[in-house]
From TrEMBL:
Reactions that this protein is recorded to catalyse: S-sulfanyl-L-cysteinyl-[protein] + uridine(34) in tRNA + AH2 + ATP = 2-thiouridine(34) in tRNA + L-cysteinyl-[protein] + A + AMP + diphosphate + H(+)
Pfam families: tRNA_Me_trans, tRNA_Me_trans_C, tRNA_Me_trans_M
Keyword presence, NADP: no
Protein name (Swiss-Prot/TrEMBL): tRNA-specific 2-thiouridylase MnmA
Region of interest (Interaction with tRNA), ranges: 152-154
Swiss-Prot/TrEMBL keywords: ATP-binding, Cytoplasm, Disulfide bond, Methyltransferase, Nucleotide-binding, RNA-binding, Transferase, tRNA processing, tRNA-binding
Broadest EC class assigned to this enzyme: transferase
Residue ranges annotated for the tRNA-specific 2-thiouridylase MnmA-like central domain, each copy included: 212-277
Domain tRNA-specific 2-thiouridylase MnmA-like C-terminal: 285-368
Organism, scientific name: Flavimobilis marinus
Residues engaged in binding ATP: A6, M7, S8, G9, G10, V11, D12, S13, M32, G125
Positions of the catalytic residues: C101, C203
EC numbers, comma separated: 2.8.1.13
Site (Interaction with tRNA): H126, Q352
Organismal lineage: Bacteria, Bacillati, Actinomycetota, Actinomycetes, Micrococcales
Length: 378
């Protein structure tokens, strides 16, 4: 196969490209330039896709003996991932930019461009497995599964890709059980990135100051912090800077009457108000998600409840639930209903990604529209 290897400049994507070459594929490496600032440098382990990363990717491609190119996707990244990040916070929701990046950049812009150029698949350094099983009609079914490396598993952020793009994706690191194994593989192959630190935080907020980034882009918008009765407890500089479940940085002038900590319960963008209250009011057991993407049509059928587990954070613990596909604005299966059947979850915010699993297999994904306690909706 002709395979386009996405090379970020890190050890994972370098080893993924090496394994694609070893598997006998005709491999071409490409680095995605996502920053508008061509002189941006890494700050320790923060951020990615910097000028140093492009150089590291080029050196890895040279060692592997494969062609290497840099594709400028900075405008697409700004207009989709960054714009979505800002608009979601502005609307009182909590986005996951890694999910949007996988959706709009890595498995839309990159994969679609690769297909147009005649490539059969894209290989990335994500930690997830693709399992091929025979379907009832004799055709091979490709399933997305968790990585055996629990600490690095990225199936949560990949669930948004959908079955068509999953069919054109390769994850060579799927069977690696630890990052140490990947680093050892890189060192054995003479790749200089073998000891390079992982990137973390939001790549376009390289200094890690998300609140500062939001203030710079959205400006100062003073408003009130209130309790559930509407009593004003303090002021804020912009409701966009708060998220459901937040405890620190509330700037309240006096403690609660019972002496217990208070948490953000709700962000109301229309009134620029932040509502706070006790932790027990954060517990929810019902979720409605929209823009659903389903990866298991053999398991999930419209309107039928399916026993599953759901996860609402990239490295959060899955909890027992039942899920079903229901009609939404985009079609008969555009929404996901979730009813938790075990313990409730706390701090689930609109805008987060909810992913349904059965064991290690990804069933589907949706963006949280509403999360609440079931007794309230009765």
């Amino acid at each position: 196969m002709r395979v386009l290897a996405a090379m970020s400049g890190g050890v994972d994507s370098a080893v993924a490209a090496a394994l694609a070459v070893e598997a006998g594929h005709d491999v071409v490496g490409v680095h995605m330039a996502l920053s508008r600032n061509r002189q941006q440098f890494r700050t320790g382990s923060r951020g990615c896709c910097s000028i140093e990363d492009a150089g590291d990717a080029r050196r890895a491609a040279d060692v592997l003996g494969i062609p290497y190119y840099v594709w400028d996707l900075s405008e697409r990244f700004e207009d989709t991932v960054v714009a979505d990040f800002l608009s979601e916070y502005e609307a009182g929701r909590t986005p996951n930019p890694c999910v949007r990046c996988n959706e709009h950049i890595k498995f839309e812009a990159l994969l679609d461009k690769a297909t147009a150029l005649g490539f059969d698949a894209v290989a990335t350094g994500h930690y997830a497995r693709v399992v091929e099983t025979p379907g009832a009609d004799g055709a091979v079914r490709r399933e997305l599964h968790r990585s055996p490396n629990d600490a690095k598993d990225q199936s949560y952020v990949l669930a948004v890709m959908g079955p068509e793009r999953l069919a054109r994706s390769i994850f060579p690191l799927g069977d690696f059980a630890s990052k140490d194994e990947v680093r050892a593989e890189a060192e054995r192959r003479g790749l200089s990135v073998s000891a390079k630190p992982d990137s973390y935080d939001i790549c376009f907020v390289a200094d890690g100051d998300t609140q500062g980034f939001l203030r710079e882009r959205l400006g100062s918008r003073p408003g009130a912090v209130v309790d559930t009765d509407g009593t004003v407890l303090g002021e804020h500089d912009g409701s966009y800077g708060y998220t459901v479940g937040q405890r620190k940085g509330l700037g309240l002038g006096r403690p609660a009457a019972d002496g217990q900590p208070r948490y953000v319960l709700e962000v109301q963008p229309t009134t620029n108000t932040v509502v706070v209250g006790p932790a027990e009011l954060l517990s929810i057991d019902e979720i409605l998600g929209h823009n659903a993407v389903w990866l298991a049509d053999d398991v999930v059928r419209a309107g039928e409840w399916v026993e599953a587990e759901v996860q609402v954070r990239a490295h959060g613990a899955p909890v027992p639930a039942r899920v079903r596909a229901v009609p939404g604005a985009g079609g008969p299966r555009d929404a996901m209903e979730v009813e938790l059947t075990g313990r409730p979850l706390r701090g689930v915010a609109a805008g987060q990604s909810v992913v349904a699993y059965r064991g290690t297999r990804v069933l589907g994904q949706a963006t949280v529209e509403r999360a609440r306690r079931r007794e309230r909706s009765a």
